[in-house]
Amino acid sequence: MKIKVIIACCLALLLYNKAVATTLKIAYDTDPVSLDPHEQLSESTLQFSHLVFDPLLRWNKNGQFEARLATKWERLDSHTMRFFLRKNVVFSTGNTFSSKDVAYTIERLKKSPDFRAMFDTIDKVTMVDEYTIDVHTTYTNPLLLNIMTYVFPIDKAFYQGKDQIIKYGETFASRNVSGTGPYILDNRELGSWMELTRNPNYWDKNSKGNADKIILTPIRTDSTRLAALLSGDVDFIFPVSPIDIERAKKVSGIQLVTLPSTRILLLHMNQNRRKEFQDVRVRKAINLAINQALIVDKILKGYATPAGQLSSDRFLGHINGLEPEYDVEKALELMKEAGYEKGFRISMMAPNNRYMSDEKVAQAISAMLSRIGITVELKTLPKAQYFKEYDNRSADMMMLGWQSDTMDSNNLFEFIIACPDTNTGMGAYNASEYCRPEIDADIRQANREMNPERRLRLLQQIEWKIYNDSAVVPLYWQSLTWAAKDGVNIKDIVNDQNYPHIGDLFIEE
Amino acid sequence: MLIFLLRRLLQACFVMIIISLISFSIQDKLGDPVQQMVAMTVSPEERNQLRNELGLNDGFLIQYWRFAKGAIQGDLGTSYYYKEPALDVILEKLPATLELAFCAILIVILIATPCGVMAAIKPKHILSRLLMVTSSIGLSVPIFIVAILMVYIFSIELNIAPSFGRGQTTEVLGLWESGLFNKNGLSHLLLPSLSLAIALMPIFVRLIRAEMMDVLQSEYIRFAWSKGLSARRIYFIHALKNTMLPVITVGGIQAGTLVAYTILTETIFQWPGMGFLFMDSVSRVDTPLVSAYLIVVGGIFVITNTFVDLIYGLFNPTVRLASHGL
């Protein structure tokens, strides 16, 4: 009898819990351009992918891989890796997930203009059986697993035949979606809001996620977004601007979570435009004259980590103890030695709405450089115009922020440090026009080196060379700050790539 | 009347051609649309190919000719972001902006008229003086400060009105989605329309006051007094009607300010209207949408001013339309 009562109570409780729907209202600064997960490689597309699709594997908080749609994987030989897929997973259309979907997704990624560069390394995918696939790479690739975190299998039966990717036109995939993810898209008004409901057939029964409904609103203005959280109109926001963080912290009922990210901010000194920058002493002097710690402390209010190198401590190439140096005396001496005692004039450009407080940071830098006699004509531009100027290399000194897609140092070196080469795409963002063939050779070798020890040494060697040459001016690694109402346990689900795992978000009643 | 309207139509076409030329020539300065469409890692050649496909590498005249050909058929280009005809996107957002502007104008009329009249009738009264002081403060405080202050007071501290968005909408006669007919929509409308009204109000209060004081000195009002008409009839029928002429003219000119202020208000309150759309498309370098917006707004200007001239005739029958407005 007693047991029956307890069971009845439990059932009643269960039903009660079911009856009270939990809605989570999220406000980010952007929303995905398209429902097609392969149309644009951007933060908002990937955030959306984590909601409606599932990756084969993902990064957990400690920088380790976590199995998702792939349950395990093993290396067969130097060019091949085998993935075992999860069974009993269905797409929101009801189609069953199997190896054909993964093979199809990777083929499609290889055709996507944005993802192509990353997936070029995959030669082909073969299906061993319904739940096993082999991924063949063109060369031995130590980063294959990192790349596989971008594989969010899509429903082959649903997309096939109407899966073209067009950047500026409507396609079937940009308007319709079928994934295996924790949420199913209900409705959407592009640029205004998006409504999702919890997938009742979600395979991950261990997930703590309990939001039945999600309403995602992009709010572009920092102050409006914060006001929306403070007034209770939304539950979870990103980002919080550094000047608001202290104020938001004082409000009761609001929690802030900050994580250091791997996005490096740096300055390029264009050696083709200025002969002065060809002199390593001048480059060193500039590095010494800029006080990264002060910028982080005063302008970013501590929400960044001063950087003396490009690789953040999560990356393999990071050198412990290589801190930013600041010494104006020595900088002045170096300038004198190089014959620029009287200083010179340079132009500098920076964006004013791309990175956290970018304009103020640029102003601070121009003030710091004036102390060693370098007069900076600073021009800041909105990001839409800035990157056009960046591609044209329109100023002697330019600011850049870079997030490595593969979570590896080599991606930074390939795009920022390697000799610019339009054929291979290497050095595409190298606005220093700095070129060291031996670094290029190291980069190529690190791309194939499977031995972690040797790979670590290679990457650190590149990092040392950049430091000794003062090739660029590393500034800081930006931090990410989220805010939410108390009771929304965002601490457990945010990560340094800014792809919050909302599917696992637990909200206390 | 017909000739007047025809002339206005001609004028509108002329204005829009000029606007389209200007908007076309500044497109280059906005930035690179392709940059917004692709990831950082996409190679320059691929970007260039995309630019070719979009026709962005053609000369200015070729691009303008292509645009003009479409525009004659009512096609103002396709938005890069929304991937729909730019005009459709704008018209979809138009009701939200119109409702906001309508409510703001309503608030202005309902509050500014009695305030202005009051300040004119009893210029020495303490309330009138207070009104004048607040209106000059209102004139000098920028709208975004007003808006942010309102959000702070009414949403964050008092928690009586939502801080952003448009809330629920209901469909009216199958024509448009309206926020005016349900409580949630109205509560969302409160702060944006009030901020917009506060920005526009002071100039009207001062104008009505000055005009009214002028009119009250005139012969016919003195005559009306001696005739023994009631005070209410003199102030609100005889005097106010003649006060309104310059007010309407200024109102027509203020339509431009209204459009500019809706852009600001909508951005601050995340109001999903045309102004917000415009700001967004500028930052996304959605050039077809930017051009289309400027042309539509140009059209709205011409239409409002035509209306103003028509209303002018109603208030003052001595104004002849045919000789007016061109």
TrEMBL record, chain A:
<dbReference type="Pfam" id="PF00496">
    <property type="entry name" value="SBP_bac_5"/>
</dbReference>
<comment type="similarity">
    <text>Belongs to the bacterial solute-binding protein 5 family.</text>
</comment>
<keyword id="KW-0813">Transport</keyword>
<dbReference type="InterPro" id="IPR039424">
    <property type="entry name" value="SBP_5"/>
</dbReference>
<dbReference type="GO" id="GO:1904680">
    <property type="term" value="F:peptide transmembrane transporter activity"/>
</dbReference>
<dbReference type="GO" id="GO:0015833">
    <property type="term" value="P:peptide transport"/>
</dbReference>
<feature type="domain" description="Solute-binding protein family 5">
    <location>
        <begin position="65"/>
        <end position="419"/>
    </location>
</feature>
<dbReference type="InterPro" id="IPR030678">
    <property type="entry name" value="Peptide/Ni-bd"/>
</dbReference>
<dbReference type="GO" id="GO:0030288">
    <property type="term" value="C:outer membrane-bounded periplasmic space"/>
</dbReference>
<feature type="signal peptide">
    <location>
        <begin position="1"/>
        <end position="21"/>
    </location>
</feature>
<dbReference type="GO" id="GO:0043190">
    <property type="term" value="C:ATP-binding cassette (ABC) transporter complex"/>
</dbReference>
<keyword id="KW-0732">Signal</keyword>
<dbReference type="InterPro" id="IPR000914">
    <property type="entry name" value="SBP_5_dom"/>
</dbReference>
<protein>
    <submittedName>
        <fullName>Peptide/nickel transport system substrate-binding protein</fullName>
    </submittedName>
</protein>
TrEMBL record, chain B:
<feature type="transmembrane region" description="Helical">
    <location>
        <begin position="130"/>
        <end position="154"/>
    </location>
</feature>
<dbReference type="Pfam" id="PF19300">
    <property type="entry name" value="BPD_transp_1_N"/>
</dbReference>
<feature type="transmembrane region" description="Helical">
    <location>
        <begin position="290"/>
        <end position="315"/>
    </location>
</feature>
<keyword id="KW-1133">Transmembrane helix</keyword>
<dbReference type="InterPro" id="IPR045621">
    <property type="entry name" value="BPD_transp_1_N"/>
</dbReference>
<feature type="transmembrane region" description="Helical">
    <location>
        <begin position="9"/>
        <end position="27"/>
    </location>
</feature>
<dbReference type="GO" id="GO:0055085">
    <property type="term" value="P:transmembrane transport"/>
</dbReference>
<dbReference type="InterPro" id="IPR035906">
    <property type="entry name" value="MetI-like_sf"/>
</dbReference>
<keyword id="KW-0472">Membrane</keyword>
<feature type="transmembrane region" description="Helical">
    <location>
        <begin position="189"/>
        <end position="208"/>
    </location>
</feature>
<feature type="transmembrane region" description="Helical">
    <location>
        <begin position="98"/>
        <end position="121"/>
    </location>
</feature>
<comment type="similarity">
    <text>Belongs to the binding-protein-dependent transport system permease family.</text>
</comment>
<dbReference type="InterPro" id="IPR000515">
    <property type="entry name" value="MetI-like"/>
</dbReference>
<dbReference type="GO" id="GO:0005886">
    <property type="term" value="C:plasma membrane"/>
</dbReference>
<keyword id="KW-0812">Transmembrane</keyword>
<dbReference type="Pfam" id="PF00528">
    <property type="entry name" value="BPD_transp_1"/>
</dbReference>
<keyword id="KW-1003">Cell membrane</keyword>
<feature type="domain" description="ABC transmembrane type-1">
    <location>
        <begin position="94"/>
        <end position="312"/>
    </location>
</feature>
<keyword id="KW-0813">Transport</keyword>
<protein>
    <submittedName>
        <fullName>Peptide/nickel transport system permease protein</fullName>
    </submittedName>
</protein>
<feature type="transmembrane region" description="Helical">
    <location>
        <begin position="243"/>
        <end position="264"/>
    </location>
</feature>
